[in-house]
Amino acid sequence: MTLSVRRSIAALAVGAALVGSGCAINKAETAAVVDGNVITERDLQVAIAQVNSMDPALLQQPLTPTSALTALVQAPVVLDHLDGKGIVVSQSIATREANERGVERPSEDTLKIIRLATSITAAQQSGQITEADGVAITEQIQALDVEVNPRYGAFSPESASIQLSAPDWVTQDEEAP
Fold first, then answer.
1. Under DSSP, is residue 104 helix (H, G, I), strand (E, B) or coil?
2. How many CB atoms lie within 10 A of CB 30?
3. Residues with Cβ within 8 Å of residue 122, at least 6 apart in sequence
4. pTM above 0.85?
5. Where are the beta strands (DSSP E) in the chain?
6. From CA 156, how far away is CA 161, in angstroms rounded?
7. What is d(CA 156, CA 160) in angstroms, rounded to the nearest whole number?
8. What is the distance between the alpha carbons of residues 109 and 90, in angstroms, rounded to a whole number?
9. One pLDDT digit (tens) per residue for the chain, 177 residues
10. Separation between Cα atoms, residue 119 and residue 10, nearest integer Å
11. DSSP classification of residue 101
12. Is 36 left (phi over 0), alpha (psi -120 to 50) or beta?
């Protein structure tokens, strides 16, 4: 093997190692990927902290990582569907809502969760959402290409949500006699 061939192979090996290590870093920092759109761990944690800090509370129950990730996966589909029915909660309305509840600079994902919660409430109160709408929304969510970081669970097409799951290597202890 000539020196130039060895150098080329070494350069390819270094390049492959760099590409591989870059993917590992990105994968570790990713909470989910939905149709190619990345939801980062940091963005998820910021949204959870901001929504849960609101006073008065936006939601009846505090967000968990799984419920927040489910909301962020579902939000684009639900918001688009409700927008088609004339139920629109703008970024500016969501920002004002966040400010009124004590969140001065809400993240994009926090605004997405506010828009989702507010538009669903408006649709329910106005009676503009039907069972057929629910079926259509669920079918659209089920058709999404969703990859979830295992620490948050797995995407369940049946429920169109993120479900907690134990990793394959975790086994259940048998009950003691």
1. coil
2. 16
3. 87, 89
4. no
5. 30-34, 37-40, 146-148, 154-156, 161-163
6. 6
7. 6
8. 13
9. 544 433 434 333 333 333 333 333 356 799 999 999 999 999 999 999 999 999 999 999 999 999 999 999 999 999 999 999 999 999 999 999 999 999 999 999 999 999 999 999 999 999 988 999 999 999 999 999 999 999 999 999 999 999 987 656 556 556 555
10. 56
11. T
12. left
Cα–Cα separations (whole angstroms), residue 31 to 68, 138, 154: 11, 21, 11
Token pair 């290409």 is at which residue?
145
How would you class 80 by CB atoms within 10 Å of its CB: exposed for 0-12, middle for 13-18, buried for 19 or more? exposed
Amino acid identity of 100? Answer: E
32: which strand partners? 39, 148
